[in-house]
Amino acid sequence: MTAPEDVIEIERALTRIAHLLTRARQHDRIVGEAGVAVDRASAPLLRALADAPGPVRMGALADRLAVEAPHVTRQVQRLQRAGFVERVPDPDDGRAQLVRITAEGADAVECLRAVIRRRMAEALADWSEEDRHDLAVLCHRMVDDFLRHAEERHLLGPRLG
């Protein structure tokens, strides 16, 4: 099946964005500028915990990030050693533990986001406020539709927040 040209161009643009966002050098520059010591593999988990409404089960994190549970366990251990997250008892199941971000972890995420937002603002400085607003609305709409579609097809677990 041949995709419509606009879908092909959206996929190309998203591939370029993903490449830009996941490059090791880019991550190293951002964490260096932010003054935050978090490795590239742990950063998405830390951001997911920062966006969660409260403590989260590790299995839910694995589902949400579309990774295997051992990956989450390793990243949680790293983040815990750094003081960015902590494990707390699950009030609904005395045998289970939840993970939550610490104040230090929340501060680290905000430092990272400040650098990223500043860089984005610089890159989009020539765009009108209306264009930036429209882009934000369409990006959220696209991600929400992608998530809804993936959830309907059981490709992702439930959203964290």
From TrEMBL:
Taxonomic superkingdom: Bacteria
Protein name: MarR family transcriptional regulator
SUPFAM superfamilies (alphabetical): Winged helix' DNA-binding domain (SSF46785)
GO biological process: response to stress
UniProt domain HTH marR-type: residue ranges: 7-144
Highest classification ranks of the organism: Bacteria, Bacillati, Actinomycetota, Actinomycetes, Streptosporangiales
GO molecular function, one term: DNA-binding transcription factor activity
